Structures
1.
Amino acid sequence: MHLTKFQLKQLRDLTHSLKPIISVGQNGVTENVLNELGIALDHHELVKIKIAGEDRDARQAMIQALCDASKAEKIQAIGKTLTLFRRNPKKPKIDLPKK
């Protein structure tokens, strides 16, 4: 799903009030993390994730792995916090503008 700049801005605005509900620990992107992420994206559509680790390149690799495995769009990544969005086709929760 390709999001327009206007839709990305709206989703970024919505992320400010969210708390991280998934944490990627020292073990990295595991099967359990991916399962929880899939459930959270199906339920919430917009999910904030905390990623552990000091190495910037390792965090970027984890972000890419999370996006690829979940088929979600990266909304923003600030420091160790990542926000992903994936539309629930059966029960959409977030009303995105058409622009």
2.
Amino acid sequence: MSEIFHFLGQHIEAIYILALSIFLGIEVISNVPAVLHTPLMSGANAIHGVVIIGAIIVMGQADPQNYLALALGFIAVVLGTLNVVGGFVVTDRMLEMFKKKDKK
């Protein structure tokens, strides 16, 4: 138990920043209108391309015999790609709703 208190004492600034960011994030998200929530989430999914880049870098640095790291990296690339593509699909569908429909 004393090890936990020692860790908390050494990293108190990081804990304060984490707590502040949680409260700030809740406040910002709760004040976003419902109309803007979906576009913001689809944009956030598209930003997850960083996960793909990170997974590719980790897979490139992994030992060729470390099958666990390679498998997890591959899964991260696949799931990150699905997330990015899904974000763009949602954004495209939302933009289609605002286009004028042609009368036949």
3.
Amino acid sequence: MKELVEVVAKALVDYPDEVVVTEKTEGRNIVLELHVAASDMGKVIGKQGRIAKAIRTVVKAASSKDNTRVDVEIV
């Protein structure tokens, strides 16, 4: 899941070298924290949060096979 978020985020931003995804595991829950450059924050969130919601939807769909819950937080 970490790689999926990283690939999607790098495709959206102007500074792909500054994209960092950290993973925290808590039992069956996984929290992915996405860090991007300050100038790219709007591109990752999108208007009214649509892009962020789409990223979360794709990750949740991909994680449903593994029977785990994955949350994406944009920091």
